[in-house]
Amino acid sequence: MKRLTAGALVALGTLGGARAALRRRRAQQLRLDVYYEDGAMLSLPPTTPEATAALARATEALRAAEAA
Q: What's the total number of domains in the chain?
């Protein structure tokens, strides 16, 4: 009986951990955060034209830095 209980607890813990990892992965969506000198911040979703252009340039810069 103790083995069955321990096995069930391990299975539930594993399932809970996998669920949390999937939730975190979905939450890490690409966005553009603009920080101003006065401490204000503006977060733009990637669907806005400004963010699309800036994120494309940033992606290119990161790829170039990885290749160097």
A: 1
